[in-house]
Amino acid sequence: MAAPSDTSELKGLIASGALDPREIVAVIGKTEGNGGANDFTRALATLSFALALEPHLGRAKEAIMSEIAFVWSGGTEGVLSPHATVFTRSNASTIPPASPRLALGLAMTRDIAPDEFGTPAHVILVADAVRQALADADIKDPADVHYVQVKGPLLTPAAIASAKAAGQALVTDDPNGSKPFARGAMALGVAVGLGEVQAEKVTPASIARDMNLYSKVASTSAGGELTKCEIILFGNSPSASSDYSIGHATLKDALDASAVGAAARSANAAVEDIVTVFAKAEASTMLRGRRTTMYSDADINYERHARAAVGAVIASVTGDPAIFLSGGTEHQCPPGEAPIAAIVRARS
Amino acid sequence: MAAPSDTSELKGLIASGALDPREIVAVIGKTEGNGGANDFTRALATLSFALALEPHLGRAKEAIMSEIAFVWSGGTEGVLSPHATVFTRSNASTIPPASPRLALGLAMTRDIAPDEFGTPAHVILVADAVRQALADADIKDPADVHYVQVKGPLLTPAAIASAKAAGQALVTDDPNGSKPFARGAMALGVAVGLGEVQAEKVTPASIARDMNLYSKVASTSAGGELTKCEIILFGNSPSASSDYSIGHATLKDALDASAVGAAARSANAAVEDIVTVFAKAEASTMLRGRRTTMYSDADINYERHARAAVGAVIASVTGDPAIFLSGGTEHQCPPGEAPIAAIVRARS
Amino acid sequence: MAAPSDTSELKGLIASGALDPREIVAVIGKTEGNGGANDFTRALATLSFALALEPHLGRAKEAIMSEIAFVWSGGTEGVLSPHATVFTRSNASTIPPASPRLALGLAMTRDIAPDEFGTPAHVILVADAVRQALADADIKDPADVHYVQVKGPLLTPAAIASAKAAGQALVTDDPNGSKPFARGAMALGVAVGLGEVQAEKVTPASIARDMNLYSKVASTSAGGELTKCEIILFGNSPSASSDYSIGHATLKDALDASAVGAAARSANAAVEDIVTVFAKAEASTMLRGRRTTMYSDADINYERHARAAVGAVIASVTGDPAIFLSGGTEHQCPPGEAPIAAIVRARS
Amino acid sequence: MAAPSDTSELKGLIASGALDPREIVAVIGKTEGNGGANDFTRALATLSFALALEPHLGRAKEAIMSEIAFVWSGGTEGVLSPHATVFTRSNASTIPPASPRLALGLAMTRDIAPDEFGTPAHVILVADAVRQALADADIKDPADVHYVQVKGPLLTPAAIASAKAAGQALVTDDPNGSKPFARGAMALGVAVGLGEVQAEKVTPASIARDMNLYSKVASTSAGGELTKCEIILFGNSPSASSDYSIGHATLKDALDASAVGAAARSANAAVEDIVTVFAKAEASTMLRGRRTTMYSDADINYERHARAAVGAVIASVTGDPAIFLSGGTEHQCPPGEAPIAAIVRARS
């Protein structure tokens, strides 16, 4: 993408027949904003994609934005390249190949109430939706799930004010402080939904605090414009006939280049088969015994330092700077580590 | 270093006897500033190191600052770690080992006149000093030289004003615009001094413009506070008895992790033998066919993006974020590439 | 505006009948981007306004964007507030009031050819269009003109490449370096069109260089997406029946609070009558004998420092942080100064 | 100052005899850093000033740094100019002038224990030291005090760890989160010491929370390198014979230019008599009914936006950009407002 509003390649794929716009279910990409509260590149990209699809889908942009899952992460630090990966789903009656292939499952919770936000109730709602997404993807074994992208609401100033007026207790009264609770509750919802964590272990005190409870395939993000949690589940299904499959691994730290190959191997493939990577970048104050300055830098946010570093490490292995890399890993991996998933061209 | 003023590890090495302060000839390191015109962390580090050495050397800080070569690069983006590498030279009458070992050669030009600045005369003065440094290091074959750090003057506003008042022609009237000429003329001086480029090929029109003329071992930086060019030449000498040797290679682009191993092999060693790395980071608008946003980002300077990325790639190979990495590669490598040198623990 | 995409107040004015969308001729505002090459808030605001007007105008957004002049300046540093001022023009047969009132004149040049760009030909094309805008506003005396907003093209990389392939000479081969030529040629076009500068004084060597040639009412900006120069001329016309009139003055430096009152007085009004202000902010290295750090700061662009300061000074006089304030004053005022215009509620 | 290390003007004043270095008691100034955790310009300035004074005072820099109060605020946004104001005190037996004149009082608390930090005990220790400073300045009436600069410790990670190991309760376990408690407890200490707030109103729950308790003359800052609270009290004393006096006022918001004149009048002088200004800048999300973007900007810290704006407003009144302006106003003024003090040339 030459800019967040650039849809020329999308239009080209549609014009050439390579992409059937009616089959699009999700768009996941990076935009060149700062990734912060005043990053409007994500909104511009969503609006531009919806407008580009309007003439093809015969529906208004508002309907398109609610039907297709748009997930953008702002911030293309270092070598990272602005791009979008468009996911389609077709009901082609092809005979499934010998090995399980990439399948997507979509689901959505109902609205999360302010007094549910960041509590076990929030976790359970996400877990239920994850199970629906599993069924939607026709995946029986949760071990075949390799990446679950969830986006959901924050506590907005307005929601906080009305909840307090109604005498409701909230996990925090600070809109910014609600981010870890949002990401954390959704990640634990994935973990519970996939059986990685038992539901009864999730107590009010553990959410966003006890980082020894985690999923290994969740990637969660939160935004004030949302009211429900949207799940896009990626796994390998025996009934799928895609040319791709997916695997995952864990980055032990920001320098763990070996995790890229591990993610490919987890999909029964090699580094050269990778077509796209989803990962999270985690900042740290110490790295392999050395002090870093990510957290003490008042000019550049620590998430930007982390994305620049981890993005370059991954791209140095795959050769491709078009990586989906975002920040905030609460309950999405063991403490200090970060999740990585790779979609590969299937070998058999 | 816990801060640019932190000399506690230096003092510890001296107190333990591991380091004889009288043998220090150069200090090369990274500080946690922004690397720009308002980066005062370099000045603070030099002042702090000189003050820490005062009681040991029995000389005033001003004398110490002029006798020891202090080279700091500001900017520890991504994983890069603030640190200093202290180089010593002793006349120990040890029997030299079988293989050539790390030797340093030091030399200095006279003051560069404003009307010489950025011209072939500037190049020749540096080339002469490089030859002196070769002799100082007792290196006969220029092929044994792997890294030549040169720092020298910029055209300051004051120098420009007085030169114009005297009717002298300058290569540029813009202090900031004098940086490429400074770095370029010094790099070509290294190239001529080591025989990589023939002196007669260096014309006024080629400096900072014809990037097909280059050294492969130069690393140059410029500062308004200097009047002479200072050379620190690193190579392997048969008469040296250091435990270390040095090699170099070229980063083909910002993702070229293989260059780290190539630099080690050039020193007859392997990646695990590397003790420290010197490299340059080069920004680009396209990388392996993908657009990057380093140059279009108005919030973060492109050199900071490049250092964050290249630093992480190198550290992902060596496991050590304490890398000396700076920007600006004019005439220091083939266009689009970047130099890298590695000091290794010698194997034999 | 709560965000660059926020059109709720525009919609409210239309819904209430306070604003007839068919009468809108121009929108001038500030958005909360960084004001640099990667500021996409301007594009998002234009797109959002055009989409908001689509159902009211019965035309597609592309037509609306070409018919209505959208002028956004990115960067709301310090106290500056994101906002839009919407200008309408109606042919109401009201009896004109006793005093001349605010009138707008619109005009456009043809495409500027690359080899015309930044040359006297560019200036003449703008001057001709300014004269058309004068007629369009029904203003006879150029002294009644107080603000001329012009936006026009830059030399894009593509235009430079094709011009060079065709053997054409350009004023610069650097896209970024073409900004001063763009702003300068358009400002001189205003000066020539209004008789402030004689056409024969504009030589190829004077554009973007001889700052003693200037308009006192021009405000120009350039963007790579444009091919023509668009003029929005603001003045007082005896045939206008607006409730407003306009005046202008000059900020002698960034601290010149007195210029705000001078601009109001120039419109026969007082500070308390001001409804909106258009101004430019100019950075400097010295101010009233003191050194500033605007230009040496590598973290924050000098234009952002200047806008933060000048915006606060103006707002401290008017009490209103919703000011249109942008940067780059070439040929738009005497060297070191900056233009300011004020629209006031007319007293008689 | 041309840089944080520039002491040339200090040396010039000493060389000319205008300044007796033995009489220096305090240095208060601005440096051109970012004002954040990685701003090392303050340390460089203190070190440089102490080194410049060494030969004149015949004592080591460490002694000088502990005897003279150095107060630096990093961040010269907008028009603000890097500078230092040097305060001297002499026991000259001059006959005091008719009106009270500027007098300084200095005092220091003992070390603040971690479990006292941010509690009423902290407040009482500062209040006691403020009373000592009053006596030191020979000021009987607290109404004659116009500015009390206090700097003191933060809770460091080390202090937090050892206090927790000892089972002590702390007001916060977050080093960064200790800033408001530090500034707040010191400001309330000033308020109690001067009788602005009754000691019994200061409860554990009120510190850094109940902003209706405040001093109107306190200016407090905190740093991890300190263990005690240092007080520099400025007021007018009948026994002083300085050429200057001091007054103060309150900025109602970031645009309140009238406060500058009010501060001068409070010293029985006019704006043109002002020689230096001390003030605080307070960011806000709304200003005179308009939204600002200071807090939502992820690229530039809100304190930098606020300093750029308020500094320009004050300088537009005094004509002098060399203003001491810092951030963080807890308990130092009514909520939403900010303190300002002006030293003036005394008229009678």
UniProtKB/TrEMBL annotation, chains A, B, C, D:
EC number annotated for this UniProt entry: 3.5.2.-
GO molecular function: hydrolase activity, acting on carbon-nitrogen (but not peptide) bonds, in cyclic amides
One Pfam family recorded for the sequence: Amido_AtzD_TrzD
Positions of the UniProt region annotated as RU B: 101-238
Segments of this protein annotated with the region RU A: 1-92
Region named RU C: 244-348
Alphabetical UniProt keywords: Hydrolase
Superkingdom to which the source organism belongs: Bacteria
Residues of the active site: K151, S221 (nucleophile)
Residues that hold substrate according to the record: R42, S73, G74, R183, S221, A222, R307, S326, G327
Entry similarity comment: Belongs to the cyclic amide hydrolase (CyAH) family.
Domain writeup: The monomer structure is formed from three repeating units (RUs) that share the same structure as one another. The monomer and the active site possess nearly threefold rotational symmetry, to the extent that the active site possesses three potential Ser-Lys catalytic dyads, but one of the 3 active site surfaces varies in composition suggesting it is involved in confering substrate specificity.
Assembly and interaction partners: Homotetramer.
Free-text function comment from the UniProt entry: Cyclic amide hydrolase of unknown substrate specificity. Catalyzes the hydrolytic ring-opening of a cyclic amide. Does not act on cyanuric acid nor barbituric acid.
Protein name: Cyclic amide hydrolase
Organism ancestry: Bacteria, Pseudomonadati, Pseudomonadota, Alphaproteobacteria, Hyphomicrobiales
Gene: trzD_2
